[in-house]
Amino acid sequence: MLRCINVPIQASYFLKSARCMPISSSFVPRSRPHRYCLLDRLFTKAVPSAMNEQQTLPPLSAQDFKVYNRGAEKMDYFHGFLRRSWNLLWDATTSGRRPASMTMKQFITEGLSFAEHLEIHHGIEETHIFPYLAKKMPEFRTGRGRQAAELLRQHQEIHNGLEGFRDYLERCLHGEEELRLDVLRGKMDGWREVLWTHLDQEVKTLGAENMRRYWTKEEMARIPM
Prior knowledge:
225 residues; mainly alpha; 2 domains; 10 helices; elongated; Hemerythrin-like domain-containing protein; Hemerythrin-like; Dimeric_xanthone_biosynth
């Protein structure tokens, strides 16, 4: 049990000794003598909740919103290409018919191009963008297993599924297997949900309301997006 003593003492001593001391008479009315833990009082004032901090942020002007939302807009632009390519492939597997304007080879090449573009996109993020953002944002920090940020764990899960998808299409391209749309769908279904969750979550994380919590407007211009 912490022991309170009636000796005036500096706040720095409290931080070192972690002992509860009485608040001086200037803090407590003489008619209501109480003993307080000054250490608790100090930390209560010094550490406001993140929710309260976020609630007190002033609204962004249209110009400032554009500055802080720059990364989200660029990311959503690139994700748009991936979404369209995925939808073309997925729609063919669910309908059982590839697009009438595409030959079998063109369809397979579309799938392989999607895989290549996704790998390049994630490679750029993990090499240049995420490490920079991770200086201030825990959403992009690396680590082993569950210690890694969720967005990076999603990358790994996506690439685990992408590997089987790409290998199947390469075998079909080289004539080692005949392309079957139901088989291709099975190669996509296992990581479809995490892919779409990731594409949306990444853009939201780079949105203006989140970025303003970590970066100044001047710093936003230096982010290698």
